[in-house]
């Protein structure tokens, strides 16, 4: 069963690459055999993570998440989430976070990208947005 062992090593190598870079940056993170979670540098940032399972990659920014099949795409998304090029708009109903939207900036104006949210929310509570942004890395610039 050498092929299974080889695919596990290949699937985990992105985690090793991320860990090595985070150590060089002095970033705070937690690592398991199948995932890495990067902690924000300050209270204005958000948690970013990467999980690997069965040759698939799952990136998350706090409550937002996206699956990837290509490890390089997953790593680009992870780097983007750590950079000031990305902003996370967190929607609250009362004190409950109910949606997370990634945003990118074009000529000084932030634009929504993708949203992950709960289906059942306390819709009767007041709605408000909190904007979070990491500055741990210089991420890839988006093509606009």
Shape type: globular
Rg calculated over all Cα atoms = 16 Å
Largest sheet: 5 strands, antiparallel
Residue ranges: pLDDT <50 for 5 or more in a row?
1-9
Report what the structure shows.
This protein has helices at 2-25, 71-82, and strands at 29-31, 35-38, 48-53, 56-61, 64-68, 86-93, 96-106, 109-117, 127-132. With 144 residues, the chain is α+β, with helices and mostly antiparallel strands. The strands form two sheets. Strands 1-2-3-4-5 form a five-stranded antiparallel beta sheet, covered by helices on one side. Strands 8-7-6-9 form a four-stranded antiparallel beta sheet, covered by helices on one side. The longest helix is centred in the N-terminal third of the chain and has 24 residues, at 2-25. It is globular, with a radius of gyration of 16 Å.
Give a brief rundown of this model.
The chain is an alpha+beta fold.
Please specify the SSE layout and strand pairing.
Blueprint: H1 2-25, E1 29-31, E2 35-38, E3 48-53, E4 56-61, E5 64-68, H2 71-82, E6 86-93, E7 96-106, E8 109-117, E9 127-132
Antiparallel strand pairs: 1-2, 2-3, 3-4, 4-5, 6-7, 6-9, 7-8
């Amino acid at each position: 069963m050498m092929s299974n062992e080889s695919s596990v090593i290949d699937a985990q190598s992105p985690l090793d690459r991320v860990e090595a870079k985070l150590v060089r940056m002095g970033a705070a993170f937690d690592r398991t055999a199948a995932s890495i979670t990067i902690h924000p540098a300050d209270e204005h940032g958000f948690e970013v993570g990467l999980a690997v399972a069965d040759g698939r990659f799952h990136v998350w920014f706090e409550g937002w998440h996206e699956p990837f099949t290509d490890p390089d795409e997953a790593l680009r998304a992870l780097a983007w989430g750590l950079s000031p090029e990305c902003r996370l708009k967190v929607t609250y109903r009362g004190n409950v976070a109910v949606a997370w939207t990634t945003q990118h900036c074009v000529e000084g104006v932030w634009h929504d990208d993708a949203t992950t949210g709960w289906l059942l929310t306390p819709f009767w509570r007041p709605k408000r947005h909190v904007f979070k942004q990491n500055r741990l890395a210089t991420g890839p610039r988006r093509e606009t």
